[in-house]
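name: query_chain
kind: protein
chains: 1
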Amino acid sequence: MRIDTHHHHKKAGENLAFVFFMNLTFNVIVIIGGLATNSMAILADCIHDMADTLSIAIAWILERVAQKDSTEKYSYGYQRFSILGAIIISVFVIIMAIIILQEAIPRLFSPEKVDAGGMLAVAVIGIVFKSLSVYRLHHGETFNEKAIFFHQLGDVFEWVAILILSLVLMVWDGAPYLDAFVSIGIALWLIFNLGRNLYKSIEVILQKTPDNFDVEEFRTSITSIEGVDQIDDFHVWSLDGIDSVLTLKVAIENSDRQEEIKKEIYAIASKYHIVDITIEFD
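structure:
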């Protein structure tokens, strides 16, 4: 049995489109703000945000591909392109975080003076734009959305930290080194969360049993069906971290109850987000 379901990828595509255009608009604002204030710190963050926008565009494109129906070449459809996007984005952001660490650590020992006024103005705008993106993604189901969500949430923390730093720098000229401390904290936060998202995405690619699938509970539920002797063999794997596929071989006492047993198995499997079931009877 095959259930057509692309609704979460369609919604993910819409969410990522919103976040993409929000980031693109913010890039323009940051460039103007950086040039107007002559703040290298803001211009440096602009490079970071432009890289964000590119990664979001990749995620958006792959979510749109994931909505396509199955073909002869991709019999299970294109849902795993969403996982491919999550892996690309997670690796990309981790690399960016490592680069931030490489830039920030030396500044602990040789802090640079920053334009506090420019930081304050752009930080306020940054918090507004990034918070809207986070709000749009906070209920996202796909790994792609989760990867971008953590990145955008990290950006919110970054701009909040920059806002606080700008206020501190306005009254204390001796605190530029705090900028490096904040950058290191944000980079480590991104590496931890995106690393976890990358690990989960790779598990899906390697066809690990889905986290929401309780093997013992499933076996017990199936074997308790009237007329079922035992489960000889079954395999379950996830297509995209949400929808899963199940193949099952069941030994039954009486072939006359085959259709009724099938319906009961479908009902049990439905709570595990199984969208494709193949049942063989012995």
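note: The two ends are 18 Å apart (CA to CA).
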